[in-house]
Amino acid sequence: MPMSDDPRLSLRLHFSSGLTFGRGKADLLQGIAEEGSISAAGRRMKMSYRRAWSLVEEMNGHFAAPLVDSSRGGARGGGASLTDLGRQVLADYRALEAVLRGQGARPLQRMRDAQRYE
């Protein structure tokens, strides 16, 4: 018997610039927006700071302007926030996810119903 979230649906965008943008990067941007910190967003995702920073640099390098603005740590601590473009990219990705879930519900149900479960 299939599980209620079967099949899982995920959206991954492959740009000709070489950037791949999917749920992980969107969740990282969401975490930065909510936590105000790249390291905190990474911890929330069980990701090292180095990995989180690498993904931020990758995203920042593939768009016309940075998605994340960060300041170094120190006595007052560092921080990070999404730029206007970062907020727009995140909102657009979430909108595409919603369209995919909505428009894809019936075809997914038909495909699920056609599966053989043993």
- Name of the level-1 CATH class of the domain at 19-66 and 79-105: Mainly Alpha
Report on the biggest sheet.
2 strands, antiparallel
Strand content: 5-15%
Shape: elongated
Strands, count: 4
Gist of the model:
With 118 residues, the chain is mostly helical.
Describe this structure in words.
This protein is mainly α. It has a domain at 19-66 and 79-105: Arc Repressor Mutant, subunit A (Orthogonal Bundle), CATH 1.10.10. It is 54% helix and 10% strand. The chain has 4 helices and 4 strands. It has a two-stranded antiparallel ribbon with strand order 1-2. β3 (68-71) and β4 form a beta hairpin. The longest helix is centred in the C-terminal third of the chain and has 30 residues, at 84-113. The model has no long low-confidence stretch (mean pLDDT 90). It holds the Pfam family HTH_1.
Blueprint (SSEs and pairs):
Layout (H helix, E strand, L loop, with lengths): L12 E2 L5 E2 L1 H13 L2 H7 L4 H14 L5 E4 L7 E4 L1 H30 L5
Antiparallel strand pairs: 1-2, 3-4
Short descriptors:
Molybdate_resp_trans_reg; Arc Repressor Mutant, subunit A; 4 strands; 118 residues; WH-like_DNA-bd_sf; LysR_HTH_N; single chain; 4 helices; mainly alpha
